[in-house]
Amino acid sequence: METQKYESLSKKWAERNEDLRNSLYAKHKTSLEKAFKNYKHLLLGSVGGLMLLTAPSPLTLPTPHSLMTIEQVHDQVSKKTSFLSSLAQALPSDVKTLDEEEENQVSEILSKNYNLQVEAEINGIRLNTTYGLIGGEQHLYRFPGDTLSKHAESSEDVEMYLPSGIAPGLGAWGYFSSSSQDFTEEDMLQERYYIAVQTFLAPGFAENVGKYRDFFKYRKMLVVNPKTGQAVVVVIGDAGPAEWTGKTLGGSPEVMHYLGLGKGPRKGAVLYFFIDDPDNKVPLGPIESVVKMKFT
């Protein structure tokens, strides 16, 4: 009897899924086919395109079959909805410090979704909160003689990030590199994807300044916009902001951009947890999660 019920439900779900797939495909079929035809014509109309078509190469033209299937789109949408819904249910209605149960639940959700081990506490050390308001920060001096213009790696940097300016003083740990000659890609990424957190408000900081200072220096963290699922792997590169600002952390221009908070008031609620990465295998920068749909 139970088997018959299961088979009946399974059949109904399959029929519903098929109807949804057909409906979505009917709505977007023309656009997909037109985009593919335009791409193919553009490629065929160039010498480079002809070379790609005739030369022995692993590169091949995309086909309609290589696009995301309706099932894959549906699966991604379902995962995004489930993830954001889980976060919304776990978080309080107001932006405030999470209690232990909420923090553990959120940590588990984030770890699973981003395939990272995130923790609110490592080695008995934690921040004053893991849920708060982030505000936009300026660039930081990376080495002696650094200037704002040197932060531009591309025209996009000039347009999007340089207008934020550069802080008049150094970050909490000074320069990221002792000289321009010793400046590495890792140094560049640490400044590009840094956050300022209220290290001075961490429980036990006043009693263990040296220990906590060393622990927090360039400590890797995951920052997440719980409304959109946009996330960035960052390092702690500075201390702040002051309590009177109402914010609990600040983000570099790049961090704010990839969190979806780079425009307008440049402020918003975020979650931020330590990443347990003793072997330094997790790269810095924006990360893709199951919530981000992409056609290939």
Question: In a nutshell, what does this entry contain?
Answer:
This protein is α+β, with helices and mostly antiparallel strands.
Topology:
Elements: H1 2-44, H2 47-54, H3 70-90, H4 100-114, E1 118-119, E2 121-122, E3 125-126, E4 131-136, H5 155-160, H6 185-192, E5 194-197, H7 209-216, E6 220-224, E7 231-239, E8 249-251, H8 253-258, E9 267-275, E10 285-287
Parallel strand pairs: 4-8, 5-7
Antiparallel strand pairs: 1-9, 2-3, 4-9, 5-8, 6-7, 6-9, 7-10
Helix pairs in contact: 3-4
Question: What features would you describe in this structure?
Answer:
It is globular, with a radius of gyration of 24 Å. The two termini are about 45 Å apart. A hairpin with a 2-residue loop joins strand 2 (about 120) and strand 3. It is an alpha+beta fold and about 300 residues long. The protein has 2 domains: about 1-55; about 95-285, RlpA-like domain (Barwin-like endoglucanases), CATH 2.40.40.10. It has helices at about 1-45, 45-55, 70-90, 100-115, 155-160, 185-190, 210-215, 255-260; strands spanning about 120, 120, 125, 130-135, 195, 220-225, 230-240, 250, 265-275, 285. Helix 3 packs antiparallel against helix 4. Mean pLDDT is about 80; it is low at about 1-15, about 35-65 and about 290-295. The protein has a 6-stranded mixed beta barrel.
